Amino acid sequence: MGPAEHPSLQMALCHLGQEDPLNMKPFLLQDAVEACGGRLFHADSQSRVQAICTDSRQIKTGALFLALKGDRFDAHHFLTPELVSRLTCAMVHRPSLHPGLPPFPMIDVSDVRQSMGRLARWHRRRFDVPVVGITGSNGKTSTKAFLKAALSSELDVLASPASYNNDVGIPISLLQMESNHQVVIMEIGTNHPGEIEHLTRMVHPQIGIITSISGGHLGHFGSVDAVAAEKGWLAELLPTDGVFYMHADSPWFRVCCQRTSARIVSVGFREDADWQISQCAMERDHTACVIRHRGLGVKVDFRIPIPGCHQALNAGMAFATAFELGVSPEKIVQGLSVAKMPSMRMEMIQTDKYTIWNDAYNANEDSVLAAMETFRKISTQGGRRIMLLGDLNELGDHANEVYQRLADAAVNHAFDLLVGGGQGGSEWIAHVSARAHARCLSYATLDAAVNALPRILEPDDQLLLKGSRGAHLECISRAIVEGGKGGLASSTRTGKDRIEGSVSCGRAMEQQILDKPAMGVGSIVA
């Protein structure tokens, strides 16, 4: 899979470009050569590596520079005569170097990206500490945040940052392991078959969590069964003395459990779950629940700083795992209550006029359904309830059926107004219009939807934003906030990130739709 096919690659590389070199437990250049299967030139094999660096601007003594290649750049091109004179060593693919460079310390490999993964796999096995691997169609990053919060009061925790869950982000995270770390949490993602197996072997976790299985990346996997088969590799590769956690209510619970030799622990809303979650009560800024384990005699209330029963399930996974790792229920509850949640997960943004619920970090069918249900329960104060849906990516031939089901769900939730932005949002609106009497507006581009918002929004409105990462719906909330006093900025984005498009027709019809009663028929494509 090329870099352009995996958006988190660029996120990881861009993030690292702003960071200092990664300090780590030192090793010898000879260790790196053997781990990567490379060849050492112009360097002492007994020289010590004390840090990993991926940004040529941050090179320092003792760092091994990794000349990674992305779809928009190649780090080999930044190696100049002056820079290589300061290198302790660099991992490179020699044919990619500029001709004329003087000899410098290097490890020559056939593929720097793959070799970084081999080095990370070797480095991870230097440590005898519990490593938790988390995968799932939804909830990976939130579960990681909850688990880190639950553990951090008593243990020194290393958790992969942001959504570093691919074959660049995971090695970068593993190479940060140091002797002081007592627990490591790694998020494991996929959008193509074969990735979970490869990354799980790299991470080598003793504890595995599958948060959910749903129709993410259907365009690449073809069916939810195939997604389940891919996620199940985490269960299969756990050691016999490991522990496997999964949602007891999942239709694929038994299928995944049959693939593991580890001890199985179920977490869910079912009464027969090992850890049962019950009495979920949502407010605008938190969710309160009860979790209990009859066999262990544990029953406690906990609270998380985010609305959503699906988030309570993620927190339940974290609670069970932290308990397994020896943290007291009291400390776990305290940690969960102050968990630092990743952005754009049902994030409430209050302006002088409107309330925006930004749940637009990413989306697939199940996460959209969860967002609709959560929004229904927490948007009881204020004016109209409006949802804007953007594109859902990587659906392939399944797009039409997914948008049909989401249209049915939207109608059942009785929103005051539904707005579609982009091709996917427009398809969703078309299905809504064909099914029910509902106010709905459709815009061909994201900019067109944003430009229409001043005419659409009224004081006290509540707006739910949902769409795939590639839809960039966060620019809508940014436009509203930057506009000040509940107004809107004139453009969603500038420069290379700008999406072109504007409303050029249909405003009279748009106003007719907005003027209709809440259950009036109508839709518009602008």
Q: What is the residue-averaged pLDDT?
A: 84
Question: Helix proportion of residues, in percent?
Answer: 25-40%
Largest sheet strand order: 8-9-7-10-11-12-13-14-15
Shape: globular
Low-confidence stretches are: 1-19, 489-506, 517-526
The fraction of residues in strands falls at 15-25%
Number of helices: 18
The assigned structural class equals alpha/beta
Quantity of strands, as a count: 21
Quick recap of the structure?
With 526 residues, this protein is an alpha/beta fold. It has helices at 7-16, 29-36, 81-84, 112-124, 140-151, 169-174, 195-203, 218-221, 224-236, 253-257, 309-324, 329-337, 365-378, 399-412, 422-435, 446-456, 474-483, 507-515; strands spanning 22-28, 39-41, 48-53, 63-66, 89-92, 106-108, 131-135, 157-159, 183-187, 207-210, 243-247, 263-268, 275-282, 287-293, 298-304, 347-350, 355-358, 385-389, 417-421, 440-443, 462-466.
